[in-house]
Amino acid sequence: MVNQVNTYEEFADSDCVLVLLIADNSYVSIYCENKNIIEKLYFNALQNDFEDVQFITDENDTRTSLTV
């Protein structure tokens, strides 16, 4: 069964392993339960000259919902 995940807290408490938010082909946010995977995605984006790449953590994430 698929359940809607609306907040980071719901994501963290769910069986969901990855959230991908995309708006207008230029704004992308990725949330991933697996630290190794998210680090690989982050460094891949840097190596491929993506613009404005940021590593978001619990300490610097200002998002209150998983919507764009």
From TrEMBL:
Official protein name in the record: Prophage protein
Native source species: Bacillus subtilis
Superkingdom assignment: Bacteria
